[in-house]
Every structure is written in C-alpha cells, then in structure tokens.
C-alpha cells in the first residue's frame, strides 16, 4: 500500500551510511575495570588516597560533644485530693427534733406547708456536707452564724424547694419545674424567707447570707466536725430534698441547761435523812484542765496591754489533759478545747486506764 507520509531522507534527518559507520567505529567495545589504585576522576582532576580516606573515614575529634540524654522523670504518687464521703450515722432523736423544728419554721416563718423528715444522718466536715446533689443548678445555701461570728450551720435548699418557696412568697402554688439559675430577685426573696429558720433551729443561730456557689460557701465555713442531716421535705404530693449541716461545737446555748434538772433528780432519789447537797456532792470530782506550761520573758509581760496577743508556742491541735485534783494529779483523759454556745467545752478524744 502506498503511503502519503514522507520518507526520513526527504526531511533531512536521515543519516548517511558512511556517517553511521564512523559513529559505530568511535564507540568502545570494552570497558576497563576499576582498580583500587586507579584515581577517581572529578571535576578538578583526580582524588588522592588521603582525600579518599578523609571522605570515607572523617576525623571527628573537633566535633562538639553530643548533648546528654534527658533525665528519666519518675512518676510521683500524688495523693487523692478528693474528699472522702461523710461517715454515716444513725438517725437520732435529736435529728428528728431538728426536722420537726424545721417543719414548723417553714410553715410559720415561710408560709410553706411542708413536712421535713429525717432520711439519713452522717458526721463530717462542711466540705463533705456540701458535696451533695442538692447543691446543684438553681439551689441555694442559707448560712447561719454563731454568737462568735463564725458560720455554725448551713441549710442546703435544693432547686425544687427553692422554687416552691419563691412561688409561695409570690402567691402561687408550688410546682415541679425545670431547675434554673437563681436571679438576684430570687436570692432576695429567699433571704427574707429563710431568715427565721436560724432561731427555730437554735436560739444562738442568726441568719448571715444566701449563697449559690457551694465552693464559696465551703470557704466561708470553719474547720471542725459537723452533723449532716439529709431531709425529705414533703410539699403537697412531692418530695424535695434538703440538707442541714450544723457544727457540733456551737449547736445550742441550752445544751448545758439539763444539768440542774439532773441534780434535782439525784436529790429526789437520795435516801431519806441524807441532805440533797450531800447527795449531789458525793458525785462531784475536781478535775484540772492543763494545756501546757508557758514560759514568757518579763519584757513581754511588761508590755502586755488590752488587745495584745500572746502566742502559746503550741500547735492548734494540742490536746488538753484532764488531771485528777490539782496540777500534780494523774492524767485521766485527753480532749480538744472548744466552745458550746457561750461556754468553753472539752471534747474527750482519749481516756486513760484510770477511767476504764
């Protein structure tokens, strides 16, 4: 078949047979083997044996020392910062009386027909007591102070109970609604409603403030053991949780009042012909509370004036020793000093063999 394409010779690119034979004759047919003695060709000439040795095995004496490896960091055992839960205790008669007082105070002082029932009781600190589901969104914490000015009681009002109190104050009917953040107006209404609750719980308690942040309320409270009481506040047909936290050192002013009644009972039960004073005196023991001996320079004593502070040089948890008789008596018990109401008190922490 005849083709219309031009031949290679027609384009001028065809190589003549003579030229092709000359090129084939110029190309080598064998290659010389590379020997170690033969220098390598480079752009500037050939490399000597010393240069080749320097390239293959360079001298690293002038190189900087490598950086040392970082030290191995060992894991440090970090203690658990989470507070343990409060130790549960039995619901005592005093806890039930607290619940009944709170029920009367909610009805008389807040106008809310509610019945508070003691569901559980525990013993712990204020921090442990504020770790509860009641202190969530929309909840409020009513703080009450003792005569000394310290926070001695807290009432954690859950969001449903706070909403019921606010609706009752506004003339409505308590209802179950979704928890919401309390506004400044809501906090002001709650402040006026829960103010009478302190005096109903204890005559020495006074209302201090309303807080909505559990962490801030925990920072206001002091150290020490507290009684934690979980309550079920029944309003109509709904149960609303609440929690009452009261310090054990500042509960009631009247806690020391039953002693005269006990002495009268002892006097009445004394045998005939024995005076009442003799019967009461036979059960009396003289104890001396000793903290520690104190050595103070005379210059410090000379500069003492009202308002001066004299450090005892002892840790704050130094136990107080109870001695039989005077200062030279035997140690019968150890305790921690504090107050109960408006009087100083000692909480016994350890007894010796003399009282066993």
UniProtKB/TrEMBL annotation:
Pfam families: FliMN_C. InterPro entries: CheC-like_sf, FliN-like_C, SpoA-like_sf. Keywords: Bacterial flagellum, Cell membrane, Chemotaxis, Flagellar rotation, Membrane. GO terms for biological process: bacterial-type flagellum-dependent swarming motility; positive chemotaxis. The keyword Iron does not apply. It is a peripheral membrane protein. Its main location: other. Residues 287-350 form the Flagellar motor switch protein FliN-like C-terminal domain. It is found in: Bacterial flagellum basal body; Cell membrane. GO terms for cellular component: bacterial-type flagellum basal body; plasma membrane. FliM is one of three proteins (FliG, FliN, FliM) that forms the rotor-mounted switch complex (C ring), located at the base of the basal body. This complex interacts with the CheY and CheZ chemotaxis proteins, in addition to contacting components of the motor that determine the direction of flagellar rotation. Belongs to the FliM family. This is Flagellar motor switch protein FliM. The lineage of its organism: Bacteria, Pseudomonadati, Pseudomonadota, Alphaproteobacteria, Hyphomonadales.
């Amino acid at each position: 078949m005849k083709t219309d394409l031009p031949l290679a010779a027609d384009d001028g690119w065809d190589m003549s047979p003579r030229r092709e034979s000359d090129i084939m004759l110029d190309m080598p047919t064998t290659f010389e083997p590379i020997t170690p003695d033969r220098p390598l060709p480079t752009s500037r000439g050939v490399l000597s044996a010393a240069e080749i040795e320097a390239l293959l095995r360079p001298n690293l004496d002038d190189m900087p020392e490598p950086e040392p490896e970082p030290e191995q960091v060992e894991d440090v055992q970090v203690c658990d910062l989470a507070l343990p839960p409060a130790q549960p205790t039995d619901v005592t008669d005093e806890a039930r009386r607290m619940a009944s007082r709170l029920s009367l105070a909610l009805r008389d002082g807040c106008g809310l027909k509610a019945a508070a029932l003691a569901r559980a009781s525990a013993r712990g600190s204020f921090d442990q007591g504020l770790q509860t589901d009641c202190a969530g969104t929309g909840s409020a914490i009513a703080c009450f102070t003792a005569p000394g000015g310290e926070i001695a009681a807290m009432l954690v009002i859950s969001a449903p109970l706070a909403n019921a109190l606010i609706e009752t104050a506004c003339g409505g009917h308590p209802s179950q609604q979704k928890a919401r953040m309390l506004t400044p107006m809501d906090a002001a209404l709650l402040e006026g409603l829960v103010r009478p609750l302190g005096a109903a719980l204890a005559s020495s308690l006074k209302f201090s403030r309303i807080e909505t942040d559990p962490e801030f309320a925990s920072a206001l409270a002091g150290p020490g053991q507290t009684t934690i009481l979980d309550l079920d506040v029944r309003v109509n047909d709904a149960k609303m949780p609440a929690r009452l936290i009261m310090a054990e050192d500042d509960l009631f002013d009247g806690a020391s009042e039953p002693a005269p009644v006990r002495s009268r009972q002892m006097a009445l039960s004394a045998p005939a012909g024995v005076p009442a004073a003799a019967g009461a005196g036979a059960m009396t023991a003289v104890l001396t509370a000793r903290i520690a001996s104190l050595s103070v320079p005379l210059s410090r004593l000379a500069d003492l004036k009202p308002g001066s502070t004299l450090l005892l040089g002892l840790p704050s948890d130094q136990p107080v020793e109870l001695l039989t008789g005077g200062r030279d008596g035997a140690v019968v018990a150890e305790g921690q000093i504090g107050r109960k109401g408006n009087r100083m008190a000692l909480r016994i922490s350890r007894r010796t063999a003399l009282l066993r």
